[in-house]
Amino acid sequence: MEHSDGGSTVSVRTRNLTHTAPAEVSLQDALDALGDPVRRTILRDLAGSPDWTRACGTFDLPVTKGTRSHHFAVLRAAGLIEQRDEGSRRLNRLRRPEFDEHFPGLLDLVLAEPAAR
Amino acid sequence: MEHSDGGSTVSVRTRNLTHTAPAEVSLQDALDALGDPVRRTILRDLAGSPDWTRACGTFDLPVTKGTRSHHFAVLRAAGLIEQRDEGSRRLNRLRRPEFDEHFPGLLDLVLAEPAAR
Predict the structure, then answer these.
(1) CB pairs A-B closer than 8 Å
(2) Distance between CA atoms of residues A40 and A26, nearest Å
(3) What residue ranges in A1-117 does DSSP mark as E strands?
(4) Which of A68, A99, B42, B102 could cross-link B22 (Cys pair, CB 3.0–4.6 Å)?
(5) Residue boundaries of the structural domains of chain B
(6) What CA–CA distance (Å, rounded) separates B48 from B43?
(7) Is the minimum CB–CB distance between A101 and chain B shorter than 8 Å?
(8) In angstroms, what CA-CA distances link B16 with A72, B5, B82, B85?
(9) In this complex, which of B31, B103, B104 lies closest to A31 when CB atoms are compared?
(10) Integer Cα distance of B16 and A37 in angstroms
(11) For residue A87, which phi and psi values (nearest 5 degrees)?
């Protein structure tokens, strides 16, 4: 979903990480990203921690390492999270204000969802 | 998703049609239902017509008759539409107020989406 046209670059690359701004995300991509319960768990966990304090490895997820990386990549591509590397850790931030601006109410529904039983 | 416990029946059966009340729908089921572009097209079309004026056959959808029936069944099970049969026609109503109450903002995002290109 990286995209640039002339002078205006709408995606930001942090080292090797491609980010998509929420304003560039389609409703389809947002719904696809939020349609997975593991990804919603990540978002709820992130919402409960200050920005840039949670490394990917600190999330308790019932998936393999490869699947975990895929989930974070999908969240990044849907404008839901921002990531940056610090040493060997990849830190995360929930893009709550900017996602809310583009998809009002959607993240609120996810964050209010009861944790998976 | 039909469910009844003693005196309180939360789903309503109209002849052979099972309905689920939005309050009984999980976020997962709502997101799954809304994750399909054909189903979102049906909802946008319905929103533009008065209740109970649109028969299933009047929607211009790029799918077979069987797939069409499946999409309407998914929307019914997710608390998004109500249906009733009148003669040979199956009429539809968008359950906008009650769905909005349970999932504030979600249907607004779908209805505001530009039609598929």
Answers:
(1) 38
(2) 18
(3) 4-5, 8-9, 11-14, 17-20, 54-55, 81-86, 89-94
(4) B102
(5) 19-112
(6) 9
(7) no
(8) 43, 20, 13, 9
(9) B31
(10) 32
(11) 60, -130
CB pair distance less than 8 Å for A105 and B110:
no
Measure the CA–CA gap between A33 and B78, rounded to whole angstroms: 19
Residue written as token pair 């701004």? A21
SS3 (DSSP) at A84:
strand
CATH number of the A19-112 domain: 1.10.10.10
**B84: part of which helix (H) or strand (E)?**
strand B81-86
pLDDT digits (tens, 9 = 90+) for B6-40: 444 445 556 678 999 999 999 999 999 999 999 99
Q: What's the DSSP call for residue B19?
A: -
Question: For B51-100, how does the pLDDT look when each residue is reduced to its tens digit (9 = 90+)?
Answer: 999 999 999 999 999 999 999 999 999 999 999 999 999 999 999 999 99
Contact of A37 with chain B, judged by CB distance below 8 Å, is answered with yes
Q: Which residues contact B91 (CB under 8 A, 6 or more apart)?
A: B52, B53, B54, B55, B83, B84, B85
Contact A27 B109 (CB under 8 A): yes
Query: CB–CB of B103 and A110 under 8 A?
Result: no
Q: Do the Cβ atoms of B35 and A28 come within 8 Å? A: yes
Q: What pTM was estimated for this model as a whole?
A: 0.86
Q: What is the pLDDT of residues A32-77, one digit of tens each?
A: 999 999 999 999 999 999 999 999 999 999 999 999 999 999 999 9
CB contact under 8 A, B108 and A104: yes
Exposed e or buried b for every residue in A103-113, given b needs 16+ CB within 10 A?
Answer: beebbbbbeeb
